[in-house]
Amino acid sequence: MSQAPIFQRIKDYIIAQIESGAWAEGTLIPTEMALTKTFSTSRMTVNRALRELTAELVLVRRQGAGTYVAPQKVQSTLVEIKNIADEIAARGHRHHAQLHALERIPACEMLAQQFKLKVGQHLFHSIMVHFENAVPIQVEERWVNPSIAPDYMTQDFNHVTPNEYLMNVAPLQGMDYRLEAVLPTQNIASMLHIEPSQPCLVLHRTTRSANQIATCVTMWHAGNRYQFVGGKEQSAQSS
Amino acid sequence: MSQAPIFQRIKDYIIAQIESGAWAEGTLIPTEMALTKTFSTSRMTVNRALRELTAELVLVRRQGAGTYVAPQKVQSTLVEIKNIADEIAARGHRHHAQLHALERIPACEMLAQQFKLKVGQHLFHSIMVHFENAVPIQVEERWVNPSIAPDYMTQDFNHVTPNEYLMNVAPLQGMDYRLEAVLPTQNIASMLHIEPSQPCLVLHRTTRSANQIATCVTMWHAGNRYQFVGGKEQSAQSS
DNA sequence: TAGTGGTCTAGACCACAGC
DNA sequence: CTGTGGTCTAGACCACTAT
Question: Domains of chain A by range and CATH?
Answer without folding.
Answer: 6-69 (1.10.10.10), 84-222 (3.40.1410.10)
